[in-house]
Amino acid sequence: MTETATLTFRDQQVEIPAVVGSENEIGLDLGAAKLRDHSGLVTLDTGFKHTASTQSAITYLDGANGILRYRGYSIEDLADHCSFLEVCYLLLKGELPNAEELDEFRTTLNQHTLLHEDLRQFFKAFPKDAHPMGILSASMAALSTFYQDGDVNDPKAVELDVIRLLAKMPTVAGFAYKRSQGQPFIYPDNKLRYTANFMRMMFSFPTEDWIHDEDICDALDALLILHADHEQNCSTSTVRLVGSGHAPLYACISAGVAALWGSRHGGANQRVLNQLDQIHSEGGNVEKMVQKAKDKNDPFRLMGFGHRVYKNFDPRANILRKKANVVLEKLGIDDPLLDIAVRLEETALKDDYFIERKLFPNVDFYSGIIYRALGIPTDMMTVMFAMGRLSGWIAHWLEMHDQHQPIGRPRQIYTGPNLRQFVPIDQR
Ligand code: CMC
Questions:
Q1: What pLDDT score does 271 carry?
Q2: Which of 301, 310, 345, 349 to mutate to test the pocket of ligand 1 (most atoms within 8 A of CB)?
């Protein structure tokens, strides 16, 4: 029998049925209770701190215990044993592929890695110092003008759009970087694995042979996997919301990139590096940065710290802290920023301000140090996040359409003026 909660307000009572998830998370289903229809009431929850926007079978996240699973598999197992494409397949289709299925998936993607030659011209029109996230978002929206056959209700057309997006995003990212450097664009080489192909488009030259480094590609695979999904985060919710109005998938992904760009979300990784750099250039005083973050008269926040859901530790940060050591050692890099990051973490974690507010390092805290070791420039770091998160965005978009969800349209509590007498302009 369905359990219910009873909401009592003034002389009204509304029975609200509970929905129980597969990990026993409980939600009160205001939609099923038809709260507004029956009582005229709405709930107010700015920032969705207490609101589940959907039921979803993709990712499970337990913030109190630092657990993250994609389709039931622990993030630790996936990061240790899978390639990024295996995880994309898992997120999109619900199961890990066998060798044949993975091969077929890779072959299909390889047929779509090129960009339309006319789209290539767009890159030349952006200012040389354009932020690559702006270029990425614009390019994703631009793809919708090249592929206008995609009907959101046609599964075959959607499947093709999904493949195009996954195949083309690394090419777009590589072109965006080449544009910023004034270097010739490098076309994809489909003999290479996904991450190797991307690194080649970033760092090779038409004049020289390219030999990719397996260690670098493995590290990149792990980073993309760790970023691939995170249930109803800001950018994923954006993709779902834009998608709920039945906008084309490309436009939804463009909106997701824009949402990810902000400093409170994916844009934090770039800023973490800037902060560590600043501490380094000012003599390595981590204490000063911690004091600044605690100052309530200063809007400054310690980037890479805190999370809406994790209130114990972010399992992705734990994996990345270890990986940063391994990658730097393998590549023979001695980066002083790693030492500063470790000291900054230690100092913050001992501080009452951070303890009371349950602020821990998040995924963005150590990822930048690894990207830097791989040669990824700071302003490309959020683009790397987007490349990983693309598979999650798409999985959620597909799930939302499969569930035939209604258009996302929150209510509000109006606090503006009551009806006012109109005054013509010459009398104001
Ligand atoms: N430095 C200093 N104080 C902080 C920080 C921080 N990084 N994060 C939160 N606080 C304080 C905040 O001022 C507030 O204090 P008080 O209760 O005195 O007003 C308290 O902690 C709670 O913060 P909140 O802003 O209400 O928490 P939230 O859940 O709304 O925000 C967050 C979560 C991630 C936006 C926030 O912690 C933050 O801005 N962190 C820095 C940016 C960052 O690293 N973002 C990456 C998030 S993980 C990857 C991703 O999702 O993209």
A1: 96
A2: 301
